[in-house]
Amino acid sequence: MIKRSFYYLWGSQTVSNVADIIYLLSIVVLVFTSSDSLMTTILIPLFRLSSQVLSGLVAPIILSRFRLNRVLLFSQLGQFVIFTLLLLYLWNTPGQKSFFFIFIMVFGMSFLDGWTNPARNALVPRLATGEGLMRANGMVSVSDQVVKCAGWALSGIVIVWLGSLNTLVVASCCYLVAAIVTSFIRDPLAQEEVRSESSDPSSNEAGLAKEKKKGAYWKELGEGWKIIWHNRRIRSLMIVDSVDTIGGTSWVGVFILAYVTQVLHQDESWWGFMNASFFSGMILGGLLVVGLVKRLQKNSFLYMLGALMVYVLITVVFALNTIPVAALVLFAISGIPVQMAGIIRRTLLQTSAPTDQLPKVMAGIDVLTNLAFGLSLLFLGWYADRFGMVQVYLLAAVMTTIAVLIGWWYRRDFQESEPIDQPTATKVGI
Prior knowledge:
By secondary structure, the protein is mainly α. The protein has helices at 4-35, 38-65, 68-92, 99-113, 116-127, 131-162, 164-182, 188-199, 201-214, 217-230, 232-248, 253-262, 269-291, 293-297, 300-320, 324-350, 358-387, 389-409.
């Protein structure tokens, strides 16, 4: 079953993703044209990644003390305010701009945005249950990929047409619309808390006492990590995901660009074609999950491993291929198993932790994912310079094969298809 609030969540996140792409592309173009320095422009993703890692570290405290829908609303309103200040600064300084100020604003927006993903992923299981959960995850993933595919393809045209500053105004309006839609989301778990407190006067005092007993911030910061480590299902999923990420990072745009020029011997236009084909495959993979949710619901972990093995075979052929059209087709096809495995993995994570602890778990997972991605990016950059792009994709296939073997070792932890019991949360609703 999927509740109405899920569609508000889905809509607000889709609009927010549109704003993110427009604003990032506009800022990158603005900084690059103003500084004429690639190194200065690279600081933008660096500030974003470091900010999101720091945000993920403190997210457990925020997510345990505030309702998830309120966290989302505060995050989006905060981003709108910071973005508006940035826009006013850029508008009133037509000459030389302070890049430090721009980077600080980007850091602030990314810090608030770091709470969005764990809050959203923890809220989805409360708004969609049973078969509806995997279907809801599929819908979210499909919309994410559609926005990325269309956003990256059209944003450049919009910037050329409107100019960087006018495009930023469009992004600001999108942030405001996303915040307004988010205000309509209702967290059913929070509503149950209100009803229980009104029916039992002593429950409020007990809840406050429990909050005081929680006490130390450090203890709360570590709760999510403890669950990730001690919960066998979550731990095995994260091990599989981390090993797979070592090779999976090779699908980042800069590596695709190197593959296009070094292996296929094509110009940069093929880079855009490759990205578009991959996003198309990701969209198709999400639609397949939505359509086959009843079948995938049973033995979903084995289906995830099967999707990863299909991805391995495609990656090996992709690495050894030198025909541009074939690479385009293979890249599109590879997006299907990648998306299916990702949606199933997210659903399994959401059903493997108690509902009241899920926000902290998702925050910890986000930190681990960002760190794994950053370290993998550095390692593969060195590996590509030393051995070439063909070896990079062969390494990606090897790492995913190892991830599948590890997953097969842990398969008994996922033999029961029923999710664990999910007790009602006892946090203070603010």
